Amino acid sequence: MNKSYQKLIKGNQIYAETKKFQNPEYFENLSKGQKPEYLWIGCSDSRVPANEITSTHSGEIFVHRNIANLVVHTDTNLLSGLEYAVKSLEAKHIIVCGHYGCGGVKAAMTNTYHGFVDNWLRNIKDVYFKNQEELQAINNEDDKANRLSELNVIEQVRNLAKTTIVQEAWSHRELHLHGWVYGLRDGLVKDLSVIHNGQEDIDS
Questions:
Q1: Cα angle for residues 105, 58, 35 (degrees, 5° grid)
Q2: 191 is catalytic
Q3: Is 97 an annotated catalytic residue?
Q4: What sign does the dihedral 78-82-88-93 (CA atoms) show?
Q5: Catalytic entry in 43, 65, 147, 178
Q6: Cys bridge to 108: 34, 121, 172, 175, which one at CB 3.0-4.6 A?
């Protein structure tokens, strides 16, 4: 068996033994269910793990990840997770978290063919087009990509606010939407202060 694969199995054994040593009832308690207050919509990038960068434990964050943390209204996978988090788990906060240095964002800024993923990246190209005057005024390509990462997060929070799932929740309870960008170079989250608390925050 490949050594890199065995490393994962061994790592799991160490993880399980460590948790049981620290708390013999850890897995028994975890198996009883989950009631997280947060839904995390993040990028698939392996360097941006939700629990690690927020110092939270298993069961505290319900997570959905895709390339470049998009909220697309035809994505039944995302919408199913969103509905479950909002209706069944009654999450109080939804966080869209992008990151600087995002490969998906950088790819969307080019006219290069990348394969099937280009259909997905079309959504980011639309964000670029919507903000092209601001973006084209930025000469440094890395700075431009980082700003597009921020603008993309803002747009995805707005897309969340437009879903019937979120709007229905707003009709009878509080639900807060947030936009964050994570810095790979310093490990810090930047809160973009894109907070939506209700329908009055979006176009009628």
A1: 100
A2: no
A3: no
A4: positive
A5: 43
A6: 121
Residue with tokens 């980011």: 124
CB 66 within 8 A of CB 75: yes
| Cβ neighbours of residue 10 closer than 8 Å, sequence gap 6 or more | none
Is 104 exposed, middle or buried (CB count within 10 Å of its CB: 0-12, 13-18, 19+)? Answer: buried
Buried b / exposed e over 153-168, threshold 16 CB at 10 Å, is bbbbbbbbbebebbee
Based on the residue annotation, tell me whether 147 is a catalytic residue of this protein: no
Of the residues 64, 99, 147, 178, only one is catalytic, namely: 99
pLDDT along the chain (204 residues), means of 10: 88 95 94 95 97 95 98 97 98 98 97 95 97 97 98 96 95 95 97 78 70
Q: Around 116, how many Cα atoms within 13 Å sit in the side-chain half-sphere? A: 1
- The active-site residue out of 102, 147, 158, 178 is 102
| 147 membership: H or E segment, kind and range | helix 141-161
